[in-house]
Specification:
This protein is α/β, with parallel strands linked by helices and 395 residues long. Helix content is 48%, strand content 11%. The protein has 13 helices and nine strands. Helix 5 runs antiparallel to helix 6 and helix 10 packs across helix 11. The structure holds fe (ii) ion. The site of fe (ii) ion has 6 residues, from helix 5 and helix 9.
């Protein structure tokens, strides 16, 4: 079901990027326990694969999901072993197990790595081969298995996007596999699942969501629908992320707010792309296996600052939502400072904490330029521009 299609006024906006989200989306605390089994039973017969985050082992959520599926009459095949920055070989092994167990649908329960891995495994399970055979868009021929996504962090957005970002060990690069039928069929966005997330993960994934919203809003592919979603996500994260980090278990209002903002930011970037922060972040993740949320957090303000006057209009319109008052053009630096302050307030470090050797900067910059999202940058970015940012933050 296509629920939205907009013709944007910006000349860079291509009809191919028409706003769409075929995923049936539920945003409601408690919806995993209440609805997962019933939703899965509409898509599966017999066996369903439940791929959950190993980090959830000490929480009740895998059992909650399993029980909901079992009560709906489904046989549950539990799978795991997905690492951060999911590897192509891991996904290929998952697909093989899904086939061996004759699963007719897959459920991904976890953060961005698990959801991306499940999304790609659902496609590989019906198409065979290796992840690297499908780099790019719509490179497969058979429809993926039905996929239900249940996020357990407040940053991924993968529950409403068509892309899986995968670490290819052979090339030490991130590769993207995507397709119109790779959107999750269903997404259950349940803020209760955040209650057991460590504060550092709330902070890192929350700033990943903020980065999705800000890159969607300032990028070339922005459109009226993605702008509306991005603005609401930015405003909500500024208001609630510090509270969520301070007391994710006890503050149900903040928990629900950041979970909602994460999905809204996912809808925004799923239809307006990300930009240079993610280009650099994915290059660093491929080469050094550093956590995605953390790399975005340390690069967000420096990259936005480097865009200068090219994002002046967008920063001015963010000012009332971030600063609580309109900012004159000359005060756009205040918006950037507020973004820096938020990252600091939630306890995230600066670039030096990643310990990236300066000798690698040129290779990182070249990989960033080659990233598929580089053309969505608000200003043209070549490897030299990325190198300048890395050199400045790495001082
Ligand atoms: Fe991201």
């Amino acid at each position: 079901m296509i629920v939205g299609c907009f013709v944007a006024s910006k000349s860079v906006y291509s009809p191919a990027m028409a706003f769409r989200v075929p995923t049936r989306l539920t945003i409601e605390p408690g919806c995993c326990a209440a609805r997962l089994g019933g939703e899965a039973a509409l898509l599966a017969r017999g066996a369903v694969a439940l791929i959950s985050d190993d980090g959830l082992a000490a929480t009740p959520w895998p059992e909650v999901a399993h029980e909901s599926l079992r009560q709906a009459g489904l046989t549950v095949c539990r799978l795991g072993g997905v690492e951060a920055n999911p590897r192509a070989t891991t996904i290929e092994q998952l697909a093989e197990k899904i086939r061996q167990n004759q699963c007719t649908a897959v459920v991904g329960l976890g953060g961005g790595s698990v959801l991306d891995a499940t999304k790609a495994a659902a496609m590989l399970a019906t198409n065979g081969g290796r992840c690297a055979d499908y780099i790019g868009r719509d490179r497969y021929s058979r429809p993926p298995l039905p996929f239900l996504a249940v996020p357990t962090t407040c940053g991924t957005g993968s529950e409403v996007t068509w892309v899986s970002v995968i670490s290819d060990e052979a090339t030490r690069r991130k590769i993207s596999v995507k397709g119109e039928s790779m959107f999750p069929d269903r997404a259950l966005v349940d803020a209760d699942l955040l209650a057991s997330l460590p504060p550092s993960m709330v902070a890192a994934t929350g700033v990943d969501a903020l980065t999705h919203a800000l890159e969607a809003y300032t990028g070339k592919a922005a459109n009226p629908a993605s702008d509306a979603l991005a603005l609401r996500a930015v405003e909500t994260l500024f208001r609630y992320l510090p509270r969520a980090v301070a007391d994710i278990a006890g503050d149900s209002e903040a928990r629900a707010a950041v979970m909602e903002a994460s999905t809204l930011a996912g809808l925004a970037f799923g239809n307006a792309d990300v930009g240079p922060v993610h280009c650099l972040s994915e290059a660093l993740g491929g080469l050094f296996d550093v956590p995605h949320g953390l790399t975005n957090a340390v690069l967000l303000a420096p990259v936005l600052r480097s865009h200068g006057a090219s994002i002046e209009r967008q920063l001015s319109s963010l000012a009332p939502r971030i600063l609580g008052r309109p900012a004159p053009t000359a005060a756009r630096g205040e918006v950037l400072s507020a973004i820096e302050e938020l990252v600091k307030e939630v306890g995230l470090p600066t670039f030096s904490a990643l310990e990236i050797p300066p000798t690698a900067f040129e290779e990182v910059a070249a990989a960033a330029e080659a990233n598929g999202s580089n053309p969505s940058s608000p200003r043209p970015m070549a490897a030299g521009d990325y190198l300048a940012i890395l050199t400045a933050v790495g001082r």
